[in-house]
Amino acid sequence: MNQNIAIQTEDLGICFKMPSEPISGTKELFIKIAKKRIKINTFWALRHVNLSLNEGESIGIMGKNGAGKSTLLKAIARVLTPKEGRVYVRGKVFPMLELGAGFNMELTGHENIYLYGNILGLTNENVTQLYDSIVEFSELREFIHSPLRSYSTGMVARLAFATATAVQPDILLADEILSVGDKDFQDKCMDRMRSYLNNGTTIVFVSHSPNSVKQICKKGLWLEHGQVRMTGSAEEVADAYAAS
Known about the structure:
With 244 residues, the chain is α/β, with parallel strands linked by helices. The chain has helices spanning 26-34, 69-76, 109-119, 124-138, 153-164, 183-198, 210-216, 234-243, and strands spanning 5-19, 40-54, 58-62, 84-89, 93-96, 171-175, 202-206, 219-224, 227-233.
């Protein structure tokens, strides 16, 4: 395998088992399974997905809701195990799959920076060293000692993005993160991601915005019903997706 490869999927397939009829709860599900009164269907969220990305490259993943975009990121992050094929990853993966997942709404912004940093693998000492830059980037200094329940959704996302991107990773998996804040803050997020690319980070970026994909990425991949519909340059794929 090419030593410059950062991410590679080979004939990747991810499937889920789903009941064929509505179930009110886990207890009912197990009872019906035991009595053989329910049929379990197999749903392929991804199938035959091939992707290759060198270190320092960027790819934008596009597709409608349910196309398999987030599932692909979770497979690369090793959150999901392939049913078919394989996933190869070289380097430390930093997944931003759901901004703010792990935040405690009763704690202050200050306390949540440490909590979220710990979840992301940083020590308290690491977070202390990064703290001022995180607060400055988030633009939330005057609210930083207020509980998160008093924050707007956009403010929570801004704090999460600032904390999550405080350290440059080898591989960044970003799922719809540029919907945070106003346009000025979105531009700051774009600039930070571009600076990471310029310094060698590999980025897999999921977005519904063809323009955002073209601004950040060199490559593009269009998923439809869990399968690759098109690959190519970010501009070619983004324009084709937009035209559809």
